[in-house]
Specification:
Layout: H1 5-16, E1 30-34, E2 37-40, E3 45-48, H2 61-71, H3 83-93, E4 102-106, H4 109-124, E5 128-132, E6 162-165, H5 179-195, E7 199-204, H6 222-230, E8 234-238, H7 253-256, E9 263-266, E10 277-281, H8 283-292, H9 303-318, H10 321-342, E11 346-352, E12 355-363, E13 368-369, H11 371-384, E14 386-387, E15 389-391, E16 397-399, H12 408-424
Parallel strand pairs: 3-14, 5-6, 5-7, 7-8, 8-9
Antiparallel strand pairs: 1-2, 2-3, 4-10, 9-10, 11-12, 12-13, 15-16
C-alpha cells in the first residue's frame, strides 16, 4: 500500500498509538538509502548528516551480503552452538583493553544498559546508580529512570536508586581537567552510601553526546574513574553513540577520555541497522552476572546478527574509517569555525571526528540558548535536503553525526547548504 504523508501520519496514530515521535515539523518519508544518501517517496535526495546506525553507509554491500548469505544458511538462537557469535566476540574484544574479554549479545542498547546495571548489582551487592542530568541510556523500565529529560510518568518506584550530577558544559561552566565533575560524582556516591542504598556504578557516555558533546580534553574522565573505583563502584561506559571509531582519534571514546571501563555497552551502529546490541566486560564480572541472573535472549547473538556485526567491524577496519572520521571531522570543524566568524548566532563549535556541531545562542555575551531558532534551522535544512538534528540540555546544539563513510566533498555540500540557511533564517 502506498500512502500519502497525511495518511501515513494518521495511520501511525491509529495503528501504533499516540505520541510516536517523528523528526521535523513536516515529517519525511524515506523509501531508499545508499551510502550517505536517502531518497523520499517523491524521489528527492537528501544528504544524511545524522544517522550513525548505518555506520558504514546505507545498504552497505558487504553487510547486505553477510545478512543474506547467513539468512539463507541458518538462523537460530544461542542455545545451539554456532561459530558466528564466537567469531564476532573474539574480533570485538580484540579492539579493546585486554581486561574487557567477554561479551554478551542483545538486540538493543537499552537491553545492554539494563544488563550492565544488573551486572553492577551482581558484583557490588548494591543498587545505587549515578548518571548525568541531561542524558539518555534507553527505555527499559530500569534504564528509563536515568533520563531526566524524558522522565517516565508511570513506573515501578525505582527512582530512589538513581542520583544525578550536572552534565559537563565546557562552554558555560569550564572544567578543564575534570576535577569538578569528579567531585560532583563523589558527593552523590556519599549520598547513596548515607541513604543505605549503597553505590554500585556510574553510567555515562564517555563523550557525553546527548549532553552536547562538550569540548573536554583527552584524558578528562581519569579523575572520575579514580573516584568511582576508590568507592568500590563500577564505571559503565555507554558507547552506543560514541564507539566504533566515531571520534576519529580512537576506536573507542573511553580511550580518548583516558579510562578503561568495567563494563562497556554497545548498540545502534553495531550491525548497520540490523538490531544488535552488546555488553563487554571482565570475565569475573560476567561470571557474577551469569551466576546471579538466569539470562537468555532469544534473538541476541543469532547467526544473522553476528554475521552482520562482523561485517560492519571488518568494514570499519579494512576501509580505514576511523582515519576517515579524523580527516573529514577536522575539515568539518574548520568549515564550522568559518561560519562562526560570519554568523553571530553560532556561539561555540565543537566535536571530534564525525561528531561535530555548533551551539546556537541569542547573544554571545550572555550565551543565552537559541533553542527555538535551532529548531527552525534544522527544519529549514530538512527542506533543503539535509538530515541533521539538535541536542544538549537546551536543545540548541546542532547534532551532526553522519555515517562513517562521509567524505570531505559531502561535508562541503553540507556546509554550503548550512551557510545559505543561516543567511536566510533570521534570529527573530
Amino acid at each position: 500500500m502506498t500512502r500519502t504523508t497525511a495518511e501515513l501520519i494518521a495511520d501511525r496514530q491509529r495503528l501504533l498509538g499516540p505520541n510516536v515521535s517523528t523528526f521535523y515539523d513536516d515529517p519525511v518519508h524515506f523509501v531508499k538509502g545508499e551510502g550517505v544518501w536517502l531518497w523520499d517517496a517523491e524521489g528527492r535526495r537528501y544528504l544524511d548528516c545524522y544517522n550513525n546506525v548505518p555506520v558504514v553507509g546505507h545498504c552497505n554491500p558487504r553487510v547486505v551480503e553477510a545478512i543474506a548469505t547467513q539468512a539463507a544458511t541458518l538462523n537460530t538462537h544461542t542455545r545451539y552452538l554456532h561459530d558466528g557469535i564466537l567469531d564476532y566476540a573474539e574480533a570485538l574484544t580484540a579492539t579493546l583493553d585486554d581486561s574487557l574479554n567477554t561479551a554478551l549479545m542483545t538486540c538493543t542498547g537499552s537491553e545492554a544498559n539494563d544488563v550492565a546495571l544488573r551486572m553492577a548489582e551482581a558484583v557490588t551487592g548494591k543498587r545505587g546508580i549515578i548518571a548525568t542530568d541531561a542524558t539518555y541510556h534507553g527505555n527499559t523500565a530500569l534504564v528509563s529512570q536515568l533520563s531526566k529529560s524524558n522522565v517516565p510518568t508511570v513506573g515501578f518506584g525505582l527512582d530512589q536508586y538513581f542520583r544525578f550530577v550536572d552534565a559537563p558544559d565546557s562552554y558555560r561552566n569550564p572544567d578543564p581537567d575534570g576535577t569538578l565533575f569528579a567531585a560532583a560524582v563523589a558527593r552523590e556516591i556519599a549520598a547513596h552510601e548515607a541513604s543505605g542504598t549503597g553505590f554500585a556504578a556510574l553510567v555515562l557516555c564517555p563523550y557525553f553526546l546527548n549532553e552536547g558533546f562538550p569540548n573536554n580534553p583527552d584524558g578528562w574522565l581519569a579523575p572520575t574513574a579514580r573516584v568511582v573505583r576508590e568507592a568500590g563502584g563500577l564505571l559503565i561506559c555507554d558507547e552506543v553513540q560514541s564507539g566504533f571509531g566515531r571520534t576519529g582519534t580512537h576506536m573507542w571514546a573511553h580511550e580518548k577520555m583516558g579510562v578503561v571501563p568495567d563494563i562497556l555497552t554497545l548498540g545502534k551502529p553495531m550491525a548497520n541497522g540490523h538490531p544488535v546490541g552488546g555488553v563487554v566486560t571482565r570475565a569475573e564480572t560476567m561470571a557474577a552476572f551469569r551466576s546471579g541472573y538466569r539470562y537468555f535472549n532469544t534473538f541476541g547473538g543469532n547467526p544473522v546478527s553476528a554475521a552482520a556485526a562482523l561485517a560492519v567491524l571488518r568494514e570499519i577496519q579494512e576501509r580505514g574509517l576511523v582515519e576517515n572520521a579524523r580527516v573529514v571531522g577536522d575539515h568539518a570543524q574548520a568549515r564550522l569555525r568559518d561560519l562562526m566568524a560570519r554568523y553571530e548566532v553560532i556561539g561555540d563549535v565543537r566535536g571530534s571526528g564525525l561528531i561535530f556541531g555548533a551551539e546556537m545562542v541569542l547573544d554571545r555575551a550572555t550565551k543565552a540558548p537559541a533553542s527555538a531558532y535551532t529548531d527552525r534551522l534544522i527544519n529549514a535544512m530538512r527542506h533543503k535536503g539535509f538530515i541533521l538534528s539538535k541536542l544538549g540540555r537546551h536543545k540548541n546544539a546542532l547534532k551532526i553525526r553522519p555515517p562513517m563513510v562521509f567524505s570531505i566533498d559531502n561535508a562541503d555540500i553540507l556546509f554550503d547548504g548550512l551557510d545559505e540557511v543561516l543567511r536566510d533564517t533570521p534570529l527573530s
